[in-house]
């Protein structure tokens, strides 16, 4: 079984700007967990899939690309106390609709449970989590709570990421085919 998850990946130069923030958390707070994946906004939490059925996984996800491109505006920092700090995005009707469509599809057609379906979808780009100690969080959050971070992600695709046993890698991109 391989581990995968589904996400939106920002392109350059925004991806590098986000990675610099992640690197800052490594240097200032010894929180390196967020470096185990590229800058991303999660659409579907990690899941297991049989390696021999990987082509089927790609073919199934390709059925979800009938989507019009949209934009996501990044807007400052947020937190899930006492463990995670992230880059927030402004509310996006298009993002929420796409994520809901994807979640319904993966449940119905692939029997994948996405915990966000029950807890609600809270899109964000994590810059520090899990290994950020409570003391580090309470020191870092006042530094980032009112800090500015702006950017725009032009979303015309989504990615399947695959875990290699140590970190996550972009594995397959699904380009949107706009609705007519």
Main sheet properties: 4 strands, antiparallel
Which parts are unreliable, with pLDDT below 50 for 5 consecutive residues or more? none
Net shape: globular
The percentage of residues in β strands lies in 25-35%
Element pattern in H and E: EHEHEEHHEHEEE
Protein name: 2'-5' RNA ligase
InterPro entries: 2H_phosphoesterase_YjcG-like, Cyclic_Pdiesterase
Organism: Roseivirga ehrenbergii (strain DSM 102268 / JCM 13514 / KCTC 12282 / NCIMB 14502 / KMM 6017)
In short:
The protein has 180 residues and is α+β, with helices and mostly antiparallel strands. The protein has a single domain, classed as Cyclic phosphodiesterase (Cyclic Phosphodiesterase, Chain: A). Helix content is 32%, strand content 32%.
What does this structure look like?
Pfam families: 2_5_RNA_ligase2. It comes from Roseivirga ehrenbergii (strain DSM 102268 / JCM 13514 / KCTC 12282 / NCIMB 14502 / KMM 6017). 32% of the residues lie in helices and 32% in strands. By secondary structure, the chain is an alpha+beta fold. The strands form 2 sheets. It has a 4-stranded antiparallel β-sheet with strand order 2-1-7-8, with helices on one face. The chain has a 4-stranded antiparallel β-sheet with strand order 5-4-3-6, covered by helices on one side. A hairpin with a 4-residue loop joins strand 7 and strand 8. The protein is globular, with a radius of gyration of 16 Å. The termini are far apart.
